[in-house]
Design brief:
The chain is an alpha+beta fold. It has one domain. The chain contains five helices and 20 strands. The chain is globular.
């Protein structure tokens, strides 16, 4: 009886609410770039979260099968074939924007630091660079810095190799080699050169984190739900997709500077990115923190803005030393528009992120930095910033990479 009385009232009320939501104006994008939550946010969130969750479950079952089938006859676990395949060089083909890139970034509280990257591009072009810092020495830069665009010699084609710098995979998901022999220049006296030989081995400490399959579905769904959807939008997402995975480990070996040997032993992340399309001009900016704590925990947390696809994407993971767990970042309050939008970069700031259902409060204090560019026309500008950090009271060191779209900059290579 009560239902029959209320039903005639509920229908018009529901219609009023529906049309009020339908006609509610969308919030404008912050700075005309960063999309905000709008009227259909939660509907879109639930829809895309369900899809992402199902995809992740399917991959999880698929991976269990591959791990079990990859065991040797005595039950010893081997590197699964699908992980081993990730470590292969990517075939660039005829795609003008194809990429196959490897990267290392490590440091410690004593001030030792290594950053190295080689990105293979079509027509034997690479973007490559090397930073070295050892105790008692100035920060050393590879000769071409601040530029990275270079052409490979014939003997370097198809390799992660350019002008004395080489990166090789020895054991998939276990060991990589980084070597360099040539001159470098001190940051504080770039007219001077020193002779450098580096023989470094990277070894895995944690399992890898694959952004294709291990990101938090909830976090990803919230970022996707902010954007304006259309059939063209999802086609663009597919076009811009590239595979990217990272792994925390240690980098050890010897760096010899003008005949004087130095030992390197630092925590270090390495990554591998590949795909048919990466155009730095499509990115607005990103900030990415690589953090190494005194208790053995390592983490990577960042935010990416690629306006045509995702104006705000939270990325990252936590490697927990106590149980060797690798956990996706579930949320972060680091907002790009609040930090250095116009290249006035903060030197003391903080944020909170969540992983493994635990909150982590991060404080970052910048000690030093350097700038370099990627692309023939310097399309992308990067700040590498070495920092002291405090995470929930645990001290550590970090390198934070700040990227900005540099298309409007009129400076040219070599300047």
């Amino acid at each position: 009886m009560l239902c029959s009385c209320l039903l005639p009232l509920l229908i018009p009320v529901g219609l009023v609410v529906f049309f009020r939501i339908l006609n509610k104006p969308n919030k404008p994008a912050i700075f005309g770039i960063y999309q905000q939550r709008n009227k259909f946010f939660w509907f879109k969130f639930l829809f895309i979260y369900t899809i992402l969750r199902i995809k992740q479950l399917i991959h999880h079952l698929y991976r269990i099968y591959y791990v079990e089938s990859g065991k040797s006859c005595d039950g010893t676990l081997q590197v699964p074939k699908l992980d081993e395949a990730l470590e292969n060089k990517y075939y660039l083909g005829d795609n003008a924007q194809a990429i196959d890139a490897v990267y290392f970034n490590g440091n410690n509280k004593e001030g030792d630091a290594v950053i190295c990257g080689i990105a293979r591009r079509p027509k034997n072009i690479v973007d490559a660079f090397l930073y070295l810092k050892v105790q008692g020495e100035d920060l050393l830069l590879s000769p071409e810095l601040p530029d990275t665009y270079q052409e490979q010699a014939l003997v370097e084609h198809g390799l992660y190799k350019i002008k004395g710098l080489e990166i090789e995979n020895f054991i998939p998901m276990r060991t990589w080699k980084l070597t360099y022999k040539g001159v470098m220049k001190p940051k504080n006296d770039k007219q001077k050169t020193v002779q450098v030989e580096a023989d470094l081995t990277w070894s895995a400490v944690f399992s890898h984190f694959n952004y294709d399959t291990q990101m938090s579905p909830r976090c990803m769904a919230k970022d996707l739900a902010r954007e304006k959807w259309s059939r063209g939008y999802f086609k663009l997402l597919k076009k811009l997709h590239q595979t990217h995975y990272e792994q925390m480990g240690v980098l050890q070996g010897t760096v010899t500077i003008d005949g004087k040997p130095h030992t390197i032993d630092i925590p270090c992340v390495r990554d591998h990115s590949f795909g048919p399309f990466r155009d730095w001009r499509t990115f607005h900016r990103y900030v990415y923190h690589f953090i190494f704590l005194e208790n053995g925990d390592c983490m990577a947390i960042g935010s990416v803005c690629q306006p045509s696809a995702l104006s705000h994407l939270t990325i990252g993971y936590l490697c927990r030393h106590s149980d060797q767990a690798v956990l996706a970042v579930q949320s972060s309050d680091f907002q790009l528009y609040q930090h250095g939008e116009h290249q006035t970069l903060p030197r003391d700031y903080g944020f909170i992120f969540k992983a493994g259902n635990q909150p982590y409060a991060v404080r970052v204090q910048v000690d030093s930095e350097d700038v370099f560019y990627i692309g023939k026309e310097r399309e992308a500008k990067f700040y590498e910033r070495w920092c002291r950090v405090d995470v929930n009271g645990v001290k550590g060191s970090a390198c934070v990479e700040w990227h900005y779209n540099n298309v409007q900059d009129k400076s040219k290579r070599g300047e």
